[in-house]
Amino acid sequence: MAKDFACALTHVRHEGYFLEKWIAYYGGLFGRENLHVVIDGDDWEPDVDLTGIQTEVLLDAPRRRIRNDRFMAKEMSGRANTLRKRYEHVIRGDVDEYVVIDPDSGLGWEDAFKELTEEGYIFALGVDIVEADTEATPIDRAAPILGQRRHGFVADRYTKPFVITRWNNWAGGAHRLLNRPTVISNHFFLFHMALADKTVAEERLAARGGLQQHKSFVDHQTGRLDAIADDGLADPIDFAEACDIGRAQFPVEPDGSVAKRPRPATDPRATEQGLPTTVPDRFFGLV
Fold first, then answer.
1. Number of alpha helices (DSSP H) and beta strands (DSSP E) in the chain
2. Pairing mode, if any, of strands 121-130 and 160-164?
3. pLDDT at 225
4. pTM
5. Domain carrying residue 225
6. Which phi and psi angles does 85 have, rounded to 5°?
7. Do 36 and 68 touch, CB atoms closer than 8 A?
8. What Å distances lie between residue 43 and 24, 59, 60, 162, CA to CA?
9. pLDDT at residue 159 greater than cutoff 80
């Protein structure tokens, strides 16, 4: 029996805005009936229309960050590999991450997926969108983010393996696959939107428990909020150049060997967040 073309899988906790956007984006691509949402915990309910979407509630996730990352990696890998029995391509990512095809490639999803390795995966080049000083006006939440926000970092930490077609398992935080080298796409980009708007980011922190969460989550989330003030954005690298640097340097260990997960760029212009850049107009309105 022929498999369906593709589905998208995510997990979510105390989230509304990005879940709604995730559903609209991937539902528009593959149909709401091919979306799978794992709700983390039974102590809350998403205030989002989930009609026609496959949902389940996952219990007992640990509330310490590293343990939670490992737990979710195992749980979501199991679900993704089960979905492979029905779908040719299983997309898995966080609810604030959106994979797009470079419009300049001229490719649709079917042709773009031909780039996957023989092992059945590919990494999308990560772009961490961050509210810049010149973009302090709150975003219009009903409109696409790209265009309202266009500054950020080509980032090793958000260069992720986002799709599988064969048996593969993600490791903590979904930043790598077990026993697979980093292979970065030439046309898939992963836009990470958690810091695209400071107000949205602060609301998410509060919804998840604010300072009452375990310290590991508080430190991570407040540390990420501090990145909004990063002055590296004031001196951006041309987008094409930043992408070329990322594709060349992220997959390589300091000793020159192939990396199992993306590594920071060695270019002297790189910051802790990545390679500062400005997103070209061709991406505006996609997400």
1. 6, 10
2. antiparallel
3. 65
4. 0.93
5. 4-283
6. -70, -20
7. no
8. 25, 10, 11, 28
9. yes
Distances (CA, A) of 124 to 4, 163, 192, 264: 22, 9, 11, 15
Lowest mean pLDDT among 48-57, 62-71, 155-164, 267-276: 62-71
Q: Smallest Cα–Cα separation from 101: which of 20, 182, 200, 185? A: 185
Closest CA to 273 of 234, 244, 215: 234
What secondary structure does DSSP assign to 1-35, as a single string? -PPEEEEEEEEESS-SHHHHHHHHHHHHHH-GGGE
What does the alpha-carbon distance between residue 99 and residue 68 come to, in Å, rounded to a whole number?
23
Tally the domains of the chain.
Answer: 1
Q: Minimum mean pLDDT among 142-151, 228-237, 278-287: which range?
A: 228-237
Cβ–Cβ contacts within 10 Å for residue 177, how many? 24
Neighbours of 223 (CB within 10 A): 9
Say whether pLDDT at 201 is over 90.
Answer: no
